[in-house]
Structures are given as C-alpha cells and as structure tokens.
Amino acid sequence: MDFQRSRRKDFNLQYIGTMRPVFNLKALFSDTTEHYVTPAEPAGYDLVNIRFRTARNNVDAVYLVVKGRKNLMTKVDCVDDFDYYAYDYQLENEKLSYHFEIRTGTLVAYYDVRGLCHEPNDYYDISIIPGFKTPDWAKGAVMYQIYVDRFCNGDPSNDVLTGEYVYINEPVQKMQDWYQYPSAMDVREFYGGDLQGVIDKMDYLKNLGVEVIYFNPLFVSPSNHKYDIQDYDYIDPHFGKLVSDEGELLAPGQTENRLASRYVDRVTNKANLEASNALFARVVEEAHKRGMKVILDGVFNHCGSFNKWLDRERIYENAKGYDPGAYVSSESPYRNYFDFKDETKWPYNPTYDGWWGHDTLPKLNYEGSRKLEEYILNIGRKWVSAPYNADGWRLDVAADLGHSPEYNHHFWQEFRKAVKEANPEALILAEHYGSTRDWLQGNEWDTVMNYDAFMEPVTWFLTGMEKHSDDFREDLLGNAEAFWGAMRHHGANFTMPSWQVAMNELSNHDHSRFMTRTNHKVGRTGTLGPQAAEQGINRAVFMEGVMIQMTWMGAPTIYYGDEAGLCGFTDPDNRRTYPWGREDLQLINFHKDLIHLRNVNDELRRGSICFVDAGYNYLAYGRFHKDGHCLILINNLDSPQEKDVDAWVIGTPKEGRMRTLIQTGEGGYSLGGPEYDLHAGRIHLCLPKTSATILKFDRHAPSAMGEGPKDVEVKPEILTPEEEMRRKRRFVY
C-alpha cells in the first residue's frame, strides 16, 4: 500500500477489500514541540513524555522505537476525533533518536521526520538533545537584516570621503546620490549609512514589528561590506562617531595608505574608537528599550589585509599604541596568527595564506596560535557583555574556520562555552550551505541561516529561479513534490530548538532580491544592467513568498528594503540603499499587518507545522496547537483553483467554521474575508490566482485579529495619511 499517495476521503476510517478498518493515514502526527514532548527542552536524565496522534479508535497499537527497541505507548487522551498515545521515556545524557511504529491488524506503518513512511531510516529519526536549549526570545522572532552603509545616513560628518584611502588599488568614493545604483565594483563606494541612522529609524522598525536587528559587520574595516575586519575590538568610526578628524586625504595618484593621514587618524585614534563603541552601546540600549534584540556579524575565519595584526597597508606601523604587524616584521607578536609560506621575505612579507587565495582576506591560523584562539573567544564574550550587551552572533562562513574539521568543531565548542557563559541568553547562528547536522548537536551553533530548508525550496517553487538569479528551472517552478521533499530532507538536520530559531530569509546581501527573482530573468547587473532587476516583477508572487516566510517554522528575517519593494540582482546590486521617500507603502503595511497576525495567533510562531495538501503550483499546510489552528494555502498558478481541503488534519473538529485572516492577490491584500463551513472536517473554496490565504479556526478566542497593533508613531515619509486611513479600515487595495 502506498501510504504517501493515499487520498481516501473518509474522515474516521479507510477501508480495503473486506471493509476491515485500516489506518486513517492523514491523522498520524507527532513532532517535538511542547505539545508533543514535555518538557520540550529537557535536561540530561529527565523523564520526558512523548505523545503521538492517531484518528479515534483507528489503530491497535503505537510503539516508540529507540535503537530498534519497541516501547508500547498508552492511549491517554481523546480530543474530538483524535486519540493521543504517550510514553514516559527516561533520558540519558545523550541524544535520543526515535520513530514510531503503528499497527492495525497485520498492517504496519512508520512515522518519522518525513511523516508517514514505508520504512524507517536513521537519517530521518526524530531527535531530542538533552540540555540543548535556544533562547526563548528568538523562537519565531521577526528579524531584520541591516547592511549599514545602505540603510540610513544619520550623521554625514563621519562619511567616508572620496580619496580618503585606497582600497584594492583604487581610491574610495563617497556617493553623492543616495538612489544611485551600485556599480559593478561597488566594494569601495560608500553611501554614508551609519549607526545614528539606525537610531533615527528605530521607531520605524518597531512599528513594522521587528523584534531582532541583525547587523552585517560593524567593526573597523576598509570596505562597505566590512567582511575584511581591520580591528575586532572597535566599531568603525565611519559607522560610529568621529571625535578627532585630523590629517589629509591621499594625494591624487598616491596609492600608499600609510600616507592616508586622515584615514589613519579616523581609524586608529582611540578617542574615535571609544566614542564609536559607546554609540553602539547606545544602539543596543535603544533597541532594548523598544523590546528588540541585536545580533552582530562575526567574521572569524579570516580578517582583512588592513588588519592591525597583519598591517599590510602599514597603517599601524607608526601609529601610537600599536605593535608591529606580522606583514611588517617577523618579530611581530602576531606572527603566528597567519600562515606565511616563505620565511625569507621580511620585512613586508606578502606570502601569507589568503582565504580562497584572496590577499585582501588573510586566513587566520588558529592551529598555529593558542593566543589567537583565546583572543577571538574574548571577542565573542566582549560584545555580548556589558556595556555593549549584544544578544548574539551570526557567524560568517563558519564551517571554513581552521584547517581541519576536527579543529573547526573544537573551536565552535569553545566559542559556545565562552559566549553562553558571558550571556546565557545569547543566540549563536551560522552561515552554512549544505548539511548542518554535525554542528547542530547542542554543543556548537544554535542554528543556521536556513538556505536548504527554506530559501532554496521557497524560491524554486514560487519563481523557478536559482537564488543568485543564475538559472531558471521550469521543472521546479510550482513543483510541490520537490518543495516538500527538500523541506523534509533538509529539515531532518534540525532538532526543534534549532528549527524554531532558524533564520528564514527570502533575500540577503549574498543573493538576488526575492522581488527580482519573480521576473524570471537569468543574469546579473553586469550582464543585464540594474534596471532589468525591476522589470517584469510580480508583486503577487512576492507576497506569496512573504506569506510562507511569516507562517513557516523559524525566525522570519527581512532583508532591509524588501518590505519596501526593493529590487536587485545578486551582489553588489542586492545592496542598494533603502528607498526612503520612494517606498512601496502597500508592501510595508502588508508586512506590518502580517507580522501582527503572527503575533496574535501564537500557533504561527510556536505551533506544530504539517503537510495538508499539494499539487501543481499549490501548497496547503497547517500551523496549530491545542488552542489555535491556522491553514495556509498558496496558489501560485496564474488562474484560480478550486479545492476541497482536509482541514481536520490540523486538529479542527469535523463541524465548525474557518474564517479568513488575510488573503493576497494581484491587487494587493485584504484583511478578513469569507468564512467557510467545515463538513466532515473538510472545506471547499476557490483560491484566487497568484494568491496566499490564511484561514483560522479557534474554539476559544472570539476574534482572531486580537485588539490590533500597538503602533509607535510613524514618520510622515513612511506612511501617508491616505495609507493610514486605509490601514485603519483594515483593508489595503
């Protein structure tokens, strides 16, 4: 019997041949949310209660299977048309992996991370890691990624000046037009965004519904992206505050940065550095006042050629209070921080190892220096401690750190200990492509930027586009089977504490903007030109993506400007400035209202998630717990679709009503809408073309909308009176 493809309509029973009752396949469910595992984040040696759901009076026995050993579960509860089986399992202080075996007569089925399956497979076992907890504040939290130079210029006095220094053989440039497209060699162009600009827009972020700010790197660095750190101990004064601003710009034609006295004063003068650190502490304080958290970007695999430990640019060679860099002298205290290939080249030895061969990105040589390891561990502690009090780290190319997998795991275990001792509530999430399992065992990272189990499947299904806009796959566009296959396969690498805080992005600084992917144009700004990124876009498909993002398990993360309609091909075009004064106000309101719905319907943040239905360009899934049940329906087809949907799968009774919370379409979105009667647990509805819908059944709450958002006043350039009136009517055209 093909359990995966069964489509029988009966709610209570299915029949084969002799009318003997067999499994109601869709009723089988379990996961490791707090509704199916208690306690949800157990300690070692805890007694943990594990539950499993079946249709009522539908199975003979359910077994919890651990390492091949079957433990008979006991029926403990009947709610509506479901039975719940439970088993109290005594944990050891080690990972528990299990699946379920379900029996009726001679028929046997299995259930694991994939849901119903023909045969168990260790890879897909459900897992609990005793002692592994992630911060409650991060579970389901709405995050907002800020690329600081492109967000808001709040203090023009600290702007990088044209000709201030040379970066990759050419003078840096201050951009005069905030709205100008980034050029192909954008890395040395600066638009002036800074931390004061973030403070100025803090109320906008709060009003949008942001709960966590994730900053791209802030530390001293010569590039606008700042993934080539110059000094880990200080915030870049170009983002921070200038107390001293002495010296001269480089003379025309001059390429030696040791002569860039204006730049040297700005980034080595301790008065500037301490003032900039103090401003960052204020940013965190202002965020915390508004109930928001702050995550920093940690670039610890490599630094930059400007770094004070290397000092290839000789910026620190004659600066007061700095030791000689390893490039300058073999006697440098930082000599072993880098791997030099030729010991005969000093002074000014250029033979250090660069990450992927880039001499602007010297790879840090941890195995050669215990002192370097301890220094970076102290950096990890420093910024999550007073007076800065950041709330966590995002780790750049984290799997590349060190020269071996063994050292990589050793370092991140030590990093976790250091950070969690300094701030037990700090979040540690890593950038990683590929299998994350080895690092998510409870003693290294908390979670990851969720490419494989979110960004990739969503973008393929809705747009058919590769996340850099480098390829279009018609076979993956609207392919629900591929979508669910990827989600289940890669999702198996997460335990629930990691999954609930996974960073779910549609766009970021390394990939094309999701809005641009909706136009199906294959190429980059260098081949098609930046204007092409805005041509042929489909806002309705974009809103479908946001709907999935805000209703999926994990932490939905908005890349700055996505909520305002920003477009862009992959790096560097994805780093356009936030379009202040030119925002798509409807999309901003859409994000605001959808985040509010997420907040007042807790199942969208912390509930279980399950497959309900699928088809060509069609997805239906549920988010639910005992007090709330939401059904999310995506029609990515350019025509309406009529559907009969088994809503009972998410725990609704057979009879009742489901109401529309929000629906998107070609014209925008509406709050509220039709109600649908449940008949034998099913609803019949017609989904508009290119639409996304949330339906709600709640047996307790009189209003699924709650009392409405508690708004912070929005500045006039963000919300016009007309748009404010529309929002008060709870409908946007």
Amount of helix = 10-25%
Distance between the termini: 48 Å
- Strand pairing plus helix content: what structural class? alpha+beta
Helical segment count: 15
List low-pLDDT spans. Answer: 1-21, 707-733
Broad shape: globular
**Largest pleated sheet:** 8 strands, parallel
Calculate Rg over CA atoms.
Answer: 27 Å
Q: Report strand order across the widest sheet.
A: 24-23-22-21-18-13-26-25
Tell me the fraction of residues in β-strands, as a range.
15-25%
Number of strands: 36
Mean pLDDT: 93
Which features would summarize this protein structure in a list?
8-stranded parallel sheet; 15 helices; alpha+beta; disordered N terminus; disordered C terminus; 733 residues
What is this structure, in a nutshell?
The protein is of the alpha+beta class. It has 15 helices and 36 strands.
Q: In words, what does this structure look like?
A:
It is built from 15 helices and 36 strands. Helix 5 packs parallel to helix 6, helix 7 runs antiparallel to helix 8 and helix 12 packs parallel to helix 13. It is of the alpha+beta class and 733 residues long. The protein is globular and about 85 Å long. It is 20% helix and 24% strand. It starts with 13 loop residues before the first strand and ends with a strand. An 8-stranded parallel beta sheet has the order 24-23-22-21-18-13-26-25. Strands 27, 28, 29, 31, 32, 33, 35 and 36 form an 8-stranded antiparallel beta sheet that branches. Strands 5, 6, 9, 10, 11 and 12 form a 6-stranded antiparallel beta sheet that branches.
